[in-house]
Amino acid sequence: MNPTKTNRQTILVCLLAALAGLLFGLDMGVIAGALPFIAKEFGLSSHHQEIVVSVMMFGAAFGALCSGPMSSSLGRKKSLLLGAVLFVIGSIGCAFAHNVEILTVSRFILGLAVGVASFTAPLYLSEIAPERIRGSMISLYQLMITIGILVAFLSDTALSEGGHWRWMLGVITFPAIVLFIGVLTLPESPRWLAMKDRHELAGKVLKLLRNSDKEAQNELNQIRDSLKMKQRGWQLFRHNSHFRRSTYLGVLLQFMQQFTGMTVIMYYAPKIFEIAGFSTTREQMWGTVIAGLTNVLATFIAIALVDRWGRKPILKLGFSGMAICMGILGYMFHSGISNPTEQYAAVIVLLIFIVGFAMSAGPLIWVLCSEIQPLAGRDFGVTCSTMANWIANMIIGATFLTLIDTIGSPNTFWLYGVMNIVCIVLTILFVPETKNISLENIERNLMRGEPLRLIGQQIFKATRPGTAAAK
Ligand code: BGC
């Protein structure tokens, strides 16, 4: 990467947009620590606790569903602003909730915000970043998610002494306000502007963010070319089999990310430490913080490698590592953990699993999902994949404890191990390598009917104009 002035400007823009990920992570991470106190104050049954937790994922799926049409009509920037406003309202609502109904509604509003953020931020980043650093810029978003989760774990640990659950949930208002102010300074996505026929403004934004006017003009020409496709969103999905393929791939990718088992570890880390023999709450809380820290640090590996090694090799490596770790953990739980050496060995395997996820599927699935969709269907395609993330997240979150109770810990972990092996096969068969290729190039390959795993190959001058026409 050439660290010129323009690039620095792009990185700043990307960092600000990635702040949305921080809010996503904070809200995902905070509930684990706050829940016991909330349950005590309102006298909640397990069922009510499940509702308080899962209503946010439900809101996120719904928020992602609404984000497609919204970001397509209002633009990426206004959608992010609305997301920030929802974060503020939801956090204040949670902090002041005097009964469980208000808390539930506020958590739903937070869910909407998370849905909007998880849809809009990676999409915006993919549309703003130049191709040579696109992977690492979208990975910044995942880095922010992991930092959010870690900070939430830390604040839970710090505030748990006095049981200050209202503060745990309420402090999130402050980063939400920072997000709002930050987004106000962002330029609109040049691709969205071009889609709305505001080509001159799109050109201006590109000139601001690229190294030369020539580079900006070339990119604008490519964007215009991909806008020759007249159908949009749902219409395109109904009539264009190529677009259906990329939409299904996005959904598959997000299911793969969730079925690695990482979400289970993020939601139930204390429980897993308990299974591994750490019986005090203090040990479990600190174990959880270390897991969160590992998640943050290992995301840097992805940021450093994604635009050099490419997406596919890193994904294969990550899934393989996760499969092996799940296999070993299953074995350890099967043979029983009876002494401190075995306890720490289990923790190390768990941390290696987290490294496997954070350097691969964590960031790269978001990267790929926002890269593979054609411009005319990007909002629709990313809506479907983001919704899939939240639906799979709900399924995983709601089944883990039941799985442990019915088939036992060893089998549950082996099951996740097998799912990671399936993910390796799916990566080999269907995932394209999109490193260093423009979004428009990927789109042309897709619409020419190339197999999905080949849509990231470079097209040289041979491309005929208009090949992107709807099939
Ligand atoms: C995933 C979450 C996961 C988190 C962990 C995100 O990319 O979508 O489900 O818990 O990463 O870092």
Automatic annotation (TrEMBL):
Major facilitator superfamily (MFS) profile domain: residues covered: 13-435
Keywords recorded for this protein, A-Z: Cell membrane, Membrane, Sugar transport, Symport, Transmembrane, Transmembrane helix, Transport
Main location: membrane
Keyword Cell wall biogenesis/degradation applies: no
Keyword Membrane attributed: yes
Family recorded in the similarity comment: Belongs to the major facilitator superfamily. Sugar transporter (TC 2.A.1.1) family.
Name of the molecule in the record: Arabinose-proton symporter
Top-level taxon of the source organism: Bacteria
Membrane topology: Multi-pass membrane protein
Record field: transmembrane: 12-39, 51-68, 80-98, 104-125, 137-155, 167-186, 248-269, 289-307, 314-333, 345-368, 380-401, 413-431
Entry-linked CDD domains: MFS_GLUT_like (cd17315)
GO MF, one example: symporter activity
Gene Ontology CC terms, in alphabetical order: plasma membrane
Pfam families in the record: Sugar_tr
Location(s), subcellular: Cell membrane
Gene3D superfamilies for the chain: MFS general substrate transporter like domains (1.20.1250.20)
NCBIfam families hit by this protein: SP
Entries under PANTHER family matching the protein: PROTON MYO-INOSITOL COTRANSPORTER
Signal peptide: none
InterPro entries reported for this sequence: MFS_dom, MFS_sugar_transport-like, MFS_trans_sf, Myo-inositol_Transporter, Sugar/inositol_transpt, Sugar_transporter_CS
